[in-house]
Structure formats: C-alpha cells, structure tokens
Amino acid sequence: AQGLLKWVGGIHTQVSGTIAAVIDERGDISRVDFDVASGAGTVDWPEIWKDPVAFDQTTARGAVVDGLRAIRFDDFFAQTGDSSGQAKGLLTFDEVGIGITADASWQDVPMERLDELWPVNLVPPTRAWVMKNVHGGTVPKGSVRLRIGPEGLRGQALNGDEVDLVFAFTDAVATIEPSRPHLTGARGTGHLTATTFDLAVTEANIGALEVTEGVLHIDGLDTTGPSMVIDLVVTGTTADAIEILNRPPVNLDGILLPGAPPLGGIMAARAQITMPVQPVILPSQMKFAAAANVREFSMEDPNGRYNLSQGSLTVRADANSAVIS
C-alpha cells in the first residue's frame, strides 16, 4: 500500500463520485471500488514523465485490488482542450516502480504535446529523434497496447511485444537533414514497438517538391546502435529536385554543365538515405542514393554553344558517382 500511496500522492485534483471499501473478516481492506470524476489538475510522476501532465477533466471507474498494490481501470477518460483519450487496464505498484498492462486510444493530440506525454524511458532513441526533428502537426487518432513491468519504465530494455503503438498524423513538419529544406504538410501513419519505428508518408512537400511516397524505418531500438533508413519519392521541377539531391561529393549541377542557369524540365526521383540514430551525425556516416527520370529537360549553355531542350534523361547517383543517360 505504501507504493500505491506514493503514486496517488502525485495526482493533484479534486474528485467527486463514489468510493466503496471491501473489508475482509480480519478487518483489512481487500478492495476499494471507485466511480469518480474530476476537474482540472495534474499528474506529477517524474519516474514516467519529465514534467507534470495537465488535464481539464477525467472520469474513472475500477477498483484498487491485490491488497492495495494495484489499480484496475475498467474505464478511464481524460480530456485536455480538444484532445481526449480512453484507456482500460491494470497499474501495479512495488518498490521498483509502476507496471502497466493497458490498452488505450486518443484523439486530436497536437505534436507540441508529445514531449509532455511521451514517457521519458519509453524507447528513448526514438523519443529523442522525434523531439529533435518533428515540429508541429496533429495526431488525429492513435492506439497503444502496453505490457510493461516496473523495470521497463526505469530505462531497462524492452521486448518487442511490450509496446505496440499505431497512429495517424497530419500537417507534420520534420527535419530530414540539418541545413536541408524541411518536410512540410506531412500526412500518414506510424507504428512503434520496443525495437522498431516506422513512418509511412502519403502526402508531403519538401520545398516546392511534392512527396508522393515516403518511408522512415528505424531498427535496432533494443541495441546500442540503432539505424535509420529514409526512402522518398518526389516530383517537381528539375531545378527544385536538383537542389534537394545535390550533396557532396556529387554535384549534379556541376556535372551537367558548370555555371549553367537553372535546369528546365520535370523530374520524378526516388532517394534513399541511411544513417545512424544518434545526436550528432557526421557526413561520412550518411549513405545516399538516388534514381530519377527527367522529361522535357532543358539546359542553357552560358556561353551559347550547347543549348538543350525537350530532353529525356535517367539519372542514378550515390555518394561516389553519377550516371546520366
């Protein structure tokens, strides 16, 4: 009961409703049933969240069981602004911490609240990457299945089946690489487990380019060296695409014709970037490859000698070379 009281003491709100204790033949409280509602308040559990989590209202129905060492939620609802969530499950308390067996869903959560709501020790590499690189947008719906013991929320590595989270996102803004144009207006779905993180983008823009397909995959989250693969299909003008695809040591502008005005035409390109998941990534740690088809290609020679028009090209490039046909 002492472990339970410690966690309950971190909940700051006023409640109303019914609470009924079941007392056994020895005079001990064996179970406490509750059906309560609250107004605004906060949950201050620093072992789980970095800062207190605020809410506008909640309702909860369930029971304190197992000799007052666990709380069973038959129905839980919370709302903050336009965001809301529902859950049912079991919280267990001991001297190590809190264990969670729960199924939950939520609606209309702004991306700006992820740092507040994402437990600090729940898949830390993915959490760190998302907090650094995702800016703005909304999660209109999502659901999660958690089967985590007390050690799992204190930083111990999780098994793949202990976390299963799926969600949709809209109007997200993301940094793919520093100093490169952001991914904006992103729409799609995501899936997080204890070992992998996947994003599937169905609609987005990079500068003036349209992203018609995008995949981000992070693997090895249960290891010390997780890696990331980003695969994008973009369409747009050749000039805009070249600006995105240019990267040392391959400079497509310089290869085609140094000093030429912006290239003309329409390009459809697939680019793949592979890199480690870590706070600082060196250029030498990034692997890049791209393939593109260009139609209505045009290029002006600044010296007036070789002006091209109505061209059709295929381009393949990686960190070492470029092949243009």
Q: Give the helix proportion (percent range).
A: 10-25%
Give the helices and strands as they follow along the chain.
HEEEEEEEEEHHEEEEEEEHHEEEE
Count of DSSP H/I helices? 5
**Which percent band covers the strand fraction?**
over 45%
Global morphology: elongated
Mean pLDDT: 87
Largest sheet: 17 strands, antiparallel
Structural class: mainly beta
The overall strand count is 20
- How far apart the termini lie comes to 74 Å
Q: What is the rounded Rg?
A: 26 Å
Low-confidence stretches: none
Describe this structure in words.
The radius of gyration is 26 Å and the shape is elongated. It has a 17-stranded antiparallel beta sheet that branches. The termini are far apart. The protein contains 5 helices and 20 strands. The chain has helices at 2-8, 114-117, 124-133, 238-245, 252-256; strands at residues 11-12, 15-23, 29-38, 41-43, 53-55, 57-65, 70-80, 83-93, 98-110, 134-135, 138-148, 163-174, 183-193, 196-206, 209-219, 227-237, 264-276, 287-299, 308-318, 322-324. With 325 residues, it is mainly β. The model has no long low-confidence stretch (mean pLDDT 87).
